[in-house]
Amino acid sequence: MCPQRLVLEHVTSRWGVLVLMALEERSYRFSELRREIGGVSEKMLAQTLQTLERDGVVHRDAKPVIPPRVDYSLTGLGREAAAQVRALADWTDRRLPEVKAARQAYDEVRAPEGP
């Protein structure tokens, strides 16, 4: 598997997209980010953040206080990736009626014939 494909997979994964879009707004603590995204397990969010951190897209700032405080934010690379993901999300919002119409037309042509 080529390295570009792996990075693309990480950035455009279900949770990767949502993490990027959330962190585009501001930095978050882990529990805040989990609530903001919604529907993601702790394990999956931790894996996604770790993967994006490894790729240089997310910055993890662990403060040596009690209780521990960890904040997540986007790096410069991450802000650039988030802008690209945001552009795709905006395109999806704008073109959704056309996609729905195409789906309906496809389903009508492909629908099984009745008895």
From TrEMBL:
Database matches in Pfam families: HxlR
Keyword annotations from UniProtKB, A to Z: DNA-binding, Transcription, Transcription regulation
Top-rank taxon: Bacteria
InterPro entries associated with the record: HTH_HxlR (IPR002577), WH-like_DNA-bd_sf (IPR036388), WH_DNA-bd_sf (IPR036390)
HTH hxlR-type domain span: 2-100
UniProt entry tagged with the keyword DNA-binding: yes
Name of protein: Helix-turn-helix transcriptional regulator
Organism: Streptomyces endophyticus
